Amino acid sequence: MSAALRASPKQSNLLRFLKPQTTTPNPSSLLRHLSAEPHHHPPPPNDSSSLVGQVIEPLQTTDNDGNEDKFRELIFPSTGPPPSPRDLLQTIRRLGSTAEALKFFYMVQTVRPQESELLSFTLEAVFEHASGEPDSHSKLLDLFERFKNSGIPFSANAAGFLIRSFGRAEMVDESLLVYNELCPSHRFTHIRNSLIDSLFRGGRVDDALHMLDEMLKPNAEFPPNSNTGHIVFNALLKRDRIGRAVDEEEVVGLVSKFSKHDVFPNSVWLTQLINRLCRKIGRTDRAWDILHELMKSGGVTEAASCNALLTALGKAREFEKMNTVMAEMKKMNIPPSVVTFGILVNNLCKVRRVDEALEVLEKMNGGENDGFSVEPDVIIYNTVIDGLCKVGRQDEGLGLLERMRSQPGCMPNTVTYNCLIGGYCKSSEIKAALELFDGMNKNGVPPNVITLNTLVDGMCKHGRTASAVQFFREMQGKGMKGNAVTYTSLINAFCNVNNIGKAMELFDEMLEAKCSPDAIVYYTLISGLSRAGKLDLASSVVSRMKGAGFSPDIVTYNVLINGFCRTNKFNKAYETLKEMEEAGFKPDGVTYNTLISHFSKSGDFTGIDKLTKEMAKEGIVPTVVTYGALIHAYCLSEKLDEAMKMFREMSSSSKVPPNTVIYNILINSLIKKNQVDEALSLMDDMKVKEVKPNTNTFNAIFRGLKEKNQLSKAFELMDRMTEHACNPDYITMEILTEWLSAVGETEKLKSFVHGYQVSAPSGKWEK
Q1: Residue 728 and which of 125, 264, 510, 767 are 20 to 30 A apart at CA?
Q2: Which residues contact 761 (CB under 8 A, 6 or more apart)?
């Protein structure tokens, strides 16, 4: 840096003019601060500002000869040291307008025409004055054009000032012109930073990166600094940037190059980059590499960036790598935050590794965090409690709630109680859930609509619909309004017990309360009405659904088609199918299975054949339901050989294994044909393929064995029924009571009812 840029050791008389004015500072003072070199200092105060007028006076008169002499003596006194460039710069900044500053410049040029460095700094102040006036960019450009060929070199600060000003006005070409006018040895880092910023603002990404490449070279004359990094990462990572797209790999490459110059993205930019790598392109491995590289270089000092990677690793269930990141943080002395531990706990709970989450919590409570003291907060406690409730350990969660009460600043909140209430509702402990709700009120924790919905849904799912309605009414009386979720739970509960009137009443109440139904509410009601055979009412709700701005989806259409098929309204079913296709939905597997089941019941194999061919054409793979419908059709038409052929095909070549329903269809048909041995063979096949028989399976076999009076086999099956925890129903008891009473084996029947073994030596009761 030349000596001319430094303040003179002996202050000239000019410093007397530098006392701050009492008026509002000119906006250019801020620009001056931004463009100043690091060694510049604010001017010292002075006792009087009256001498400023002595400088202005010769600028306002027309006597050039007299003014020159007066100006020369005032600014360049014969008895004192000459002013430094800095002194001149500060003096001109105090002038009132660009015109005065420009006249001052011409005065200096007249009396000291050979001192180019002095003139450069004077010109810098002229630029600053122009920047604070209306139409500043045009004036600056005019001044630049006027002086660029004058032989007066621009100072580095003047060039930087112009580049920034033109850059903010998106005058990128003008910024480049200024840069090119500057002496190469004066193209300092801060000048290059200003130009790179200007290029990015103008969308000239490649030009900006080209200049940056020069700075990032090893042993570059003007290497990047922290401000370079801020400009570059701010430009490349913000969402509303103009210019060509820069992919994450390019940014990662720049981060690596910057690190060679000990310049690193700040925590915000690095965190954003890691998030983009992990979320947008799924490059968790790349995010892992760059974070580790920066950690080793000392470029990561905060937990935020590590937290971003931990979040991504948690979603990918890479817990070993999460542990490695934690170990690296300890090694590099990067203190984890409560968010760090929250991420660990949350991801462990998501995969039901609740015991490990509890270990983390215990370490936090005990202060055993590898030398870092981080107290668990309410969110971490709630996360662990929720994890415990989801694995049925709500009693342990309740214990944590009690612990929270004794920990300062960690009182249980509404979320805490909601987690526990949800856990008890899922485990059918409605009484315990209601006790928690009462405790919630006693402790001054306000319930919210989630609390209401959790309890209402819990009661509905466990057959306590009347209690759910009563509870809802009580909460309404206290001023709490239900939402679409509340009404969905209640409407679904009443539909499930075929109380359509009450379901519709709640739907109407919902509309009167100005609680807008969502698509789920409409679907729940349409499904319930369809199951109840109220298809006209279901169609009416569909119309209301469309009027509310919702479009039926394929699930809704399938429900309606199924309802119409079950009530033998086939024309309506086809009308709905046509409407579905016109709405842009192609029939799916459920649609085809519904229609095939309908044709199966009527024995319409022509229709079935047409549908199966359409399925194949559309690439829809038959499911177990499809095979079940087809086998059922053959059995109903007494085409048992065809049914068995399809079953064997299904078992050998298809990837769809038969289920209990298919076995039951075949076993029933075989028993009706008095083919008991074949039916027993199928039951043995179920055991081999680990398909669990149900009560209907055993009832069919018992019926066949009774006809042949094969008691010993019946006793074996009674024992198998007990082993499978398959409870007998009234049909089972009717068959066995009539049979065993007739042969004097009522004691066996009693033992069977009480769950005891009843097998006897084979052949004892055979004919």
Answers
A1: 767
A2: 712
Rounded Cα distance between 76 and 82, Å, is 6
How many angstroms separate the CA atoms of 287 and 290, rounded? 5
Question: pLDDT band at 328, cuts 50/70/90?
Answer: confident
Distance CA(209)–CA(243), nearest Å, equals 12
The tens digit of pLDDT for each residue in 39-57 reads 333 444 443 344 345 556 6
Residue 661: both structure tokens together? 């329903």
Residue 321 has pLDDT above 50, yes or no: yes
Report how far residue 311's alpha carbon sits from residue 290's, in angstroms, rounded to the nearest whole number. Answer: 16
In angstroms, the CA 247 to CA 632 distance is 58
Q: Which candidate, 626, 550, 552, 551, places its Cα nearest to that of 588?
A: 626
CA distance 523 to 662: 30
Contact 370, 333 (CB under 8 A): no
Residue type, 357: A
From 10, 32, 151, select the one nearest 89 (Cα to Cα).
32
Please determine, for residue 758, whether its predicted confidence score (pLDDT) is greater than 80: no
- Count Cβ neighbours within 10 Å for each residue of 572-611 and write b for 16 or more, e otherwise: bbeebbeebeeeebebbbbbbbbbbbbbbeeebbeebeeb
Q: Which two tokens stand for residue 142?
A: 């005019």
What are the pLDDT digits (tens) for 693-704?
999 999 999 999
Whether the model clears a pTM of 0.85, i.e. scores above it, the answer is no
224: left (phi over 0), alpha (psi -120 to 50) or beta: beta
Answer whether residue 139 shows pLDDT above 60.
yes
The CB density around residue 539, as the number of other CB atoms within 10 Å, is 17
Cα 389 to Cα 429: distance, rounded to the nearest angstrom: 12
Residue 388 token pair: 């415990």
Dist. CA 558–CA 572, nearest whole Å: 12
One-letter amino acid for residue 542 of the chain: V
pLDDT, the chain, mean: 82
Q: What is the DSSP string of 467-502?
A: HHHHHHHHHHHTTPPP-HHHHHHHHHHHHHTT-HHH
Residue range 424-442, pLDDT digits in tens: 999 999 999 999 999 999 9
The amino acid sitting at 484 is A
